[in-house]
Amino acid sequence: MQFSKSTGHALHAVIHLARAERGQHVGIKELAALLGVSESYLSKIMSKLRQDGIVRAMTGASGGYELAKSANLITFLDVIQVVEGRQKMYECFNLDSQQHQLFFESEEQASQHTGHHEGNGCLVKKVMDGAEQQMVHYLQQHTIQGVLDSAAATSTK
Amino acid sequence: MQFSKSTGHALHAVIHLARAERGQHVGIKELAALLGVSESYLSKIMSKLRQDGIVRAMTGASGGYELAKSANLITFLDVIQVVEGRQKMYECFNLDSQQHQLFFESEEQASQHTGHHEGNGCLVKKVMDGAEQQMVHYLQQHTIQGVLDSAAATSTK
DNA sequence: CTATTATGGATATTGCAGGTCCATAAAGAT
DNA sequence: ATCTTTATGGACCTGCAATATCCATAATAG
Ligand code: SF4
Ligand code: SF4
């Protein structure tokens, strides 16, 4: 139950791009050296960020990366989901276990007309999904620009 | 970024124990059959739950497991942390990277007298820790008994 | 004593995060 | 045109943690 290292790298990379001049391209060399990771590995992460529309990339001499949109439009959630994916944190795997059946013995009849329930009514899943939602919501409210602003405010205090 | 299957099993096992009669012992055989997993594997999980004081175990004939405390004193967080551990979801691994140094160029001098800062002032880490805290807090507010109560209320509606 | 049941160590299996290498494509520089 | 620089994506390797099984041992009821 931990964020992958790649997620950390993605966050740090995006933050650095946000600090760079608008329109300025940052190469993988510079980025990798700054973060202290190999170029080949970081390039994979950057590639994903590009596919998901977080950054833009330019090949060729004096190419590199830049943010694809304003830093205040990029949330922590955006960056994290690029690397971590978008699957639910808790998935029901034992849907055919006796216990699951028990939990829904009453609901089975109720869902006769719908044809599917998929654990929608299960309170265990509801709690787990709720917990995830708390975190997701928080991460969605915090942007990259937000961090930069706060950092600036702190250093000039 | 997913909860392990073991976490799911632990939750389901505890819930079943909570539904059983107080003072009644449930064997690993019954429990494993109910959840649809092997006895040997589930016993490992149960053993952890015992070590952390969630359940009590009795060896010998007519032995088995029972809750070590009332179900309304057992939170989701308690059970989850038994399996998942208690490490932070985001850990700073690149503390010696150039970027980290940059982030703390001003703070370095400020922390001369303390001797350590360990990223306390970093806003990236602060956001990530904040997100985790949101989830942890939510999981701490939801007990096993809470799910049972809601389930009972739903079935009699 | 015997049957039953949990425990913990050892060990296999598997999936995946972490990481490298290289052939290719795109774009600027000459 | 050609060369150099730079990103891209496929193939691949590696190590470790989650998953899973087996067994020898201990504890307990009858
Ligand atoms: S969490 Fe609920 S829906 Fe999912 S398997 Fe368990 S009982 Fe079924
Ligand atoms: S998250 Fe902050 S404290 Fe952690 S390594 Fe990055 S800059 Fe340093």
TrEMBL record, chains A, B:
It comes from the Bacteria. Pfam families: Rrf2. Keywords: DNA-binding. SUPFAM superfamilies: Winged helix' DNA-binding domain. The keyword Signal does not apply. The keyword DNA-binding applies. This is Rrf2 family transcriptional regulator. It comes from Paenibacillus chondroitinus.
